[in-house]
Amino acid sequence: MKEIRKQHKDYGYRRMNQELRKRGCIVNKKKVQRLMQKLALQVRSFTRKSRKYSSYRGTIGRIAKNLLNRHFCTSVVHQKITTDTTEFKYYEKDSSNVLQIKKLYLDPFMDLYNSEIISYRISKRPNAETIMEALGEAIERTKDCPFRRTFHSDQGWAYQMKAYSHTLKEKQIYQGMSRKGNCLDNSPMENFFGILKQELYHGRVYKSYNELKQAIEKYIYYYNHSRMKEKLGWKSPIEFRKEKEIFV
To answer: I need a surface site. Which of 9, 105, 147, 203 has the fewest CB within 10 A?
Structure first.
């Protein structure tokens, strides 16, 4: 259990129990919970609330319909993709050696089939270039889908851009958007941001852009390859996808 804790610092007793089972150790989950308490292996939770970043700047372009309408589930890989932008803060000393608050932005694209992050970009400011780069990678990664794809987002300024909507139309991809001010219309991405910040960000202080950027990159790799999800049968997103591919 101590070895598992080193690899998975944020596993609670349920995930710990499933990881033990993967390794051939069948133990009752209540016993796992007791042992974690005895060995001081409980997760130290940080739930600091912060203002949600909003990229909404009014109607500056095309507002797409809410095509998904909260029907996030799909049995087809790469059919339904969602995206959003979130903001992080880090601290950096200026020329006078005074700590200044700086910001970092993450733009990920998620496959709703298995919650896998299929592309992302990290930047110091919200900008169209990085979002278009991440979009291009997501389109390329999902081109094997046998059905017409849907790319979902909120009504942020970048997703209303002509370049963004034109790119999707050119590739014959449906564009869908959440209703204004309704975060539940994109709850899978909101959930990912919550997990990411809970396990990587809240309760920690990052003292440079590169330190925070590298931590996020490392976490996304861990999330895709190793972090098990109950709805995926206690498998990681990539484990789930690869297992299903074997039977196709």
So the answer is: 147
